[in-house]
Hints:
CATH topology: CBS-domain
Low-confidence stretches: none
Largest sheet: 4 strands, mixed
Number of domains: 1
Strand content: 15-25%
Order of helices and strands: HEHEEHHEHEEH
Shape: elongated
Mean pLDDT: 90
Helix content: 40-55%
Amino acid sequence: MQVTDILSSKQGALRTVHPETPLSACVIQMADEDLGSLLVVDDHARLVGLLTFREVIRTLAQRQKELRRGPTPPVAELRVSEVMERAPISATPDMELQPLRAMMIRHHQRYLPVLDGGRLVGVVSFHDIAKSVYEEQQFENRMLKAYIQDWPAET
C-alpha cells in the first residue's frame, strides 16, 4: 500500500490556512470540523508549515506559564506563523506504508503533509493509516473466506 492509496480513500478538500490567520480562528475551525491539523500555505499555495493540536496545546501551556510571571498578550492575538511547525517533514504519494509509519514514529509526527514534486496534494494521519490497513485486512479476510467457500458466514 502506498500513500496515494490512503489519500484516495479520504474525502473532502484540503484544509489550509494562511500564516497570518489568527490562531483563535484555527482553533475554532479545528474544533468545529474535528480536525487534528491544518496545512499552512503562503500566497503562492506553497506549504510553509503545519499546525496541529500539539502546537496549540504547547502555546496554551506556555502562555499559562507566562501569565504567572506577569501580563502577556492574549492568545487571540497570536498568528499561525508564530506557533506552526515550520518546514514539517513530508511524504510523497509513491511512499510505501512501512517507511511512512517508520518516519512518523521516528519523528513523533501524527500528521504528515504529502508533496508531489513540491506541490501539496494532501495530508495523512496515523488514523488514516490505521483505517486503510483495517479496511485492507477486512477485504483480504472476506476474499480468503470466499475462496475457502465452506467458512461460516459472519453474524
